[in-house]
Amino acid sequence: MLFTDQHNELRRTVARFVAEEINPHVDEWEAAGIFPAHELFKKMGDLGLLGISKPEEYGGLGLDYSYEMVLAEELGGIDCGGVPMGISVQTNMATPALARFGSDELREEFLAPAIAGDMVCSIAVSEPHAGSDVAAIKTNAVKDGDDYVINGTKMWITNSTQADFLCLLANTGDAPSHKNKSLIVVPTNTPGISFSEKLNKLGMRSSDTAQIFLDDVRVPQRNLIGREGDGFRMQMMQFQEERLCAAMLGPKGMSDTIRRTIDYTRERQIFGGSVLDNQVVQYRLAELQTEVEALRALVWHATEQYINGTDVTMLASMAKLKAGRLAREVSDACLQYWGGMGFMWDNPVSRSYRDSRLSSIGGGSDETMLRILTKLMGMSNG
Length: 382
Prior knowledge:
alpha+beta, 13 helices, globular, acyl-CoA dehydrogenase activity, Butyryl-CoA Dehydrogenase, subunit A, domain 2, Butyryl-CoA Dehydrogenase, subunit A, domain 3, 10 strands, four-stranded mixed beta sheet, flavin adenine dinucleotide binding
């Protein structure tokens, strides 16, 4: 991937924003169990960071997806996983289908303010018994006059307690499970919507996550994104961007964890020398950094293929799989070298250890990625 001056300027802008507007507040937001999405997103919207690849007529920059990946890579430098996850929901999970397939009216009402940072949004797909198995969702949207009446439950929804609208996947017919789903924009102030308290998660503490209950929620049929029954296909398209973004959020944070560990083990004395004096520690950290660079190269290769119009389902699945496993491997190995200090709750390596566990679950589990890969490689029927 060849980077232009425009890529590099964007990289500097995001890195500066992370250093000045996010990292000084991470400890506070982690303790509170939430970050101020409206406040933060407005600042990002003012810099054009929430609509990098979105249409210019709705406030986006109209750039190709490689610029979104520059944003994701630099967001990986945030000192926690929850904030970049919340941002990426806004940019790469809840709005791509709306930007591509939404009516002009829908995009003016919801996409434009999301790009500006005036609205916070969530992607509402997962359910208590349907996470990676999207085809198994039970939420229904039934036509009644000019409206859809929606009933169901959504689970593990990021940004949900602050969201102004949901990009919600629901069953809208009796066709086979891959052809009966639709994406619908649902404002969260609609009567019949209620939320659980914030879910008490192992990691990603600064990201607010809740269960959503929909009881006869009535929205106009014009809130349908694209055509009825195309929701599963559109969600699969969104997943490719989501998985590339999720993989790209990893390398910078992993490298930071390795760097912190090198610094600490150089100072930590044990048995008459520093921990870093042990060749086995040096080699292990070098191996881990090599794997981080391999991941980064894979994601950029997939990105280049994606912007050239190639189907990157296989590459995106590989990148997502490798990113999740490597994030856990790096944080676990580094925590070991920190010893008891690494086991303390407020230690940054401890936070990385807790946050990294979601990488192999959210956005498609490791097993789901392997299922996709074995099918594409001709080893199974999926």
